[in-house]
Amino acid sequence: MPLNPLSIEISHLGTIAEPDPSSELTMADRGLDQSIQPMVASNAVGAKEETYLKFRLDAQTAAVIPARSIQEAFILPARQLTAMPNLPAALLGLTNRRNQIIWVVDLAQLLGLSIFDASTRQYNLLLIQVGMLQLGLAVHGIEGMVRLSTDRIQAPIGQMSVSLLPYLQGCTWTSQNDQPEILLVLDAEAITQSPILNSG
């Protein structure tokens, strides 16, 4: 059976930890006070630019996803994540967000890069939506919104992991502390169609 958030059996719902609003930190709480929705709307200005959410897959690897695919970015305490047995390691478990049961994926591990420490006490989470499907992506850190020229997105550079390529739209450059930095431009739809989420 595909591991689809829309097909979770009702019998599982009682096992999912209820969210604790007092312990959650939103983007605004962390100083990322740019609203996602207004930034998405501004994409109409300048057809050759698009708004992306920038984050870290690990300490060395920066990536972006189009803001139009992002519903929320927030911190999820580990105790609000319910692990499920006999699933691929990249699937961290299920969480309850606004009365919706959502799968949470270790994005870096899904892409074949790294894994979260088992002692992690909280996760930086991106909630993406493609069509009717929502998915939580646990990432190393969230850095905020950036505007990128779509004309500068190029084919993957150098030797990329074979496991990463199916999820890439391409690569582009930005500046980080006055130094050039490569950004991986990820495809939200390809992530939701990962074999890990649709195996069975």
Architecture overview:
The chain is mainly β and 200 residues long. The chain has a single domain (14-192), classed as OB fold (Dihydrolipoamide Acetyltransferase, E2P), CATH 2.40.50.180. Helices cover 8% and strands 41% of the residues. It has helices at residues 36-41, 107-110, 188-192, and strands spanning 25-26, 49-58, 61-66, 70-77, 91-97, 100-106, 122-130, 133-139, 141-149, 168-176, 179-186. A six-stranded mixed sheet has the order 1-4-7-8-6-5. A five-stranded mixed sheet has the order 9-2-3-11-10. A hairpin with a 2-residue loop joins strand 7 and strand 8 (133-139). The longest helix is centred in the N-terminal third of the chain and has 6 residues, at 36-41.
Question: What summary fits the major beta sheet?
Answer: 6 strands, mixed
CATH architecture: Beta Barrel
The CATH topology label is OB fold (Dihydrolipoamide Acetyltransferase, E2P)
Instruction: Give the fraction of residues assigned to helices.
Output: under 10%
In terms of per-residue confidence, which ranges show pLDDT below 50 for 5 or more consecutive residues?
Answer: 5-15, 22-44
CATH class: Mainly Beta
- Give the strand content: 35-45%
Coarse morphology: globular
Instruction: Name the strands of the widest sheet in spatial order.
Output: 1-4-7-8-6-5
Radius of gyration: 17 Å
The CATH superfamily is known as CheA-289, Domain 4
Q: What's the tally of helices? A: 3
Could you say which structural class the secondary elements and strand pairing correspond to? mainly beta
Overall pLDDT score: 79
**How many angstroms does the end-to-end distance come to?**
4 Å
Overall number of domains: 1
How many beta strands in the DSSP annotation? 11
- Compressed to H and E, one letter per element, the order equals EHEEEEEHEEEEEH
